[in-house]
Write a structure and sequence with these properties.
Length: 80
């Protein structure tokens, strides 16, 4: 990080990518039906494909192990 050359920095963000049901799953039951589906139109086709791929991997221990083994690889929307 050129702007922080004289300081120690810890990159502690999680690189999580929310799937299409992330908000509804955790919302109060009284508001769940009011929450609109995730819209990725502004993020482009890559984002929609990345979410679809992530949803397809959900619950797959082999896919999870492969992602965990590549912790320094592509992040978020860029992971295939």
């Amino acid at each position: 990080m050129p702007y922080a050359a004289s300081r120690t920095c810890f990159d502690a963000d999680s690189h999580l990518m929310e799937l299409s049901d992330w908000l509804v799953k955790f919302a109060d039951p009284g508001v769940r039906e009011k929450i609109r589906p995730l819209q990725l139109g502004g993020a482009g086709a890559l984002a929609a494909k990345a979410v679809a791929d992530a949803e397809a991997r959900r619950g797959d221990p082999v896919a999870a192990a492969a992602l965990e083994a590549d912790v320094m690889g592509p992040k978020g929307w860029l992971h295939e």
